[in-house]
Design goal:
The chain is mainly alpha-helical. It has seven helices and no strands. Helix content is 77%, strand content 0%. The longest helix is centred in the first third of the chain and has 41 residues, at 2-42.
């Protein structure tokens, strides 16, 4: 009896620490999954390619969802759709490629929601119908136009500086070439 009491005194704290650590690890893993899912769900109305938080979330999928083959398969499918160079495609093919990307994004979000226990609670309709204010699209277009204008201005000034008067080093080269 004393041996059992001694074993209980020794084993109970060890087992409780082990169980506590297991539960804490599981909770942290769920938080990581939820962080990725929330990031992607909250940005599902806009393209994912330009948002660093989305890029970080996507690049974390293979680690955080390593135990879910379906999520990783959906991520691999989406990644292959991202590899398509839209600039090389005709307008109609670009639209088709963007539609494939959108569907792959939806499938990824659906599989993540199922992994997190939201099957039947977060439907395809929830995923496919995000809030997207009209003004946001106008702002995005304005930002793109501003970036294009800045790029054109930079290119113009670069060309202008290349065609300006010869530099001092160039004048010395000319003097040496024509004695």
């Amino acid at each position: 009896m004393e041996v059992l009491n001694l074993l209980a005194i020794i084993l109970v704290p060890i087992v409780s620490v082990w169980v506590g650590q297991f539960l804490q690890d599981r909770s942290e893993k769920r938080k990581d999954k939820m962080r990725i899912f929330q990031c992607l769900m909250s940005r599902r109305a806009v393209p994912w390619g330009y948002d660093f938080e989305v890029i970080n979330a996507l690049n974390s999928i293979d680690i955080v969802f390593s135990d879910d083959e379906n999520v990783r398969k959906c991520w691999a499918t989406l990644l292959s759709e991202f590899d398509v160079n839209l600039d090389d495609l005709e307008k109609e093919a670009q639209l088709l490629a963007l539609d494939k990307q959108k569907k792959a994004r939806w499938e990824l979000l659906k599989s993540m929601s199922e992994n997190l226990g939201y099957k039947g609670k977060i439907t395809e309709n929830n995923i496919q119908k995000p809030y997207y204010p009209i003004g946001l699209n106008q702002q995005i277009i304005g930002n793109i136009q501003c970036q294009d204008a800045m790029r054109h201005a930079t290119e113009f000034f670069a060309q202008l500086s290349n065609t300006s008067a010869p530099t001092k080093a160039t004048q010395e080269d000319i003097a040496h070439a024509n004695p």
